[in-house]
Amino acid sequence: QKEVEQNSGPLSVPEGAIASLNCTYSDRGSQSFFWYRQYSGKSPELIMSIYSNGDKEDGRFTAQLNKASQYVSLLIRDSQPSDSATYLCAVNEETSGSRLTFGEGTQLTVNP
Amino acid sequence: DADVTQTPRNRITKTGKRIMLECSQTKGHDRMYWYRQDPGLGLRLIYYSFDVKDINKGEISDGYSVSRQAQAKFSLSLESAIPNQTALYFCATSDFPHGYTFGSGTRLTVV
């Protein structure tokens, strides 16, 4: 079983729709959770971090964390073509110090 | 200037050659990391360092070595490059518990 799993892609949504990206993790002691956006050939860029259960909103992005279910998600409202990228979920597992474990990513395409 | 700078941006090298990838940062972070990214395999940790005297192997350290010359500098070496080391390499820094800041990457091709 992979330590951090993301919903398989690619995911395609029309412009203006809500894109939903999901991630599950195996280490119950995980404390910190991150979403990165990566454009093709570019480096990952941190877009959201979440540390406690519930929702965290930043502009069009909402991160949701449910530690009991070991689940973290990212919602993108009013999706734009510029949101087309690969989204990486990253988890700081309890036994790993400050190291992050990354999922393989979900490729999102927003169609005009 | 970028917070995390990697050099070179692109490199083509021959099998058996020694090559060094360099990373420098201006963020003042103690923690630095080297990852490689391959299609379908995601980001995999090669080495990490929590300070100048603390170097640790990641999940795929074989064939690689590192040097932490200063708080701001962390270099990755391939002692004898082989074709399956062709990948996109990223350096990252962190201010735990916050997330990483990545460099712009080095695209390495071993022929």
Oligomer: heterodimer
Q: Any low-confidence stretches of chain B, pLDDT <50, length ≥5?
A: none
Strand proportion of chain A, as a percent range, falls in over 45%
**Biggest sheet statistics of chain A:** 6 strands, mixed
Termini separation of chain B (Å)?
A: 32 Å
Total beta-strand segments of chain B: 11
Assess the beta-strand content of chain B as a share of residues: over 45%
Helix content of chain A: under 10%
Average predicted confidence as pLDDT of chain B: 94
The DSSP helix count of chain B reads: 0
Q: What structural category arises from helix and sheet content of chain B?
A: mainly beta
> Which range best describes the helical content of chain B: under 10%, 10-25%, 25-40%, 40-55%, 55-70% or over 70%?
under 10%
The total of beta strands of chain A comes to 11
Order of helices and strands of chain A: EEEEEEEEEEE
Strand-pairing-aware structural class of chain A:
mainly beta
Shape of chain A: globular
Structure description:
The complex is a heterodimer of chains A (112) and B (111). Chain A has 112 residues and is mainly beta. Chain A has no helices and eleven strands. In chain A, strands 2, 4, 5, 9, 10 and 11 form a six-stranded mixed beta sheet that branches. A five-stranded antiparallel beta sheet of chain A has the order 1-3-8-7-6, with no helix packed on it. In chain A, strand 6 and strand 7 (61-66) form a beta hairpin. Chain A starts with a strand and ends with a strand. In chain B, strand 9 and strand 10 (100-102) form a beta hairpin. Chain B starts with a strand and ends with a strand. The mean pLDDT of chain B is 94.
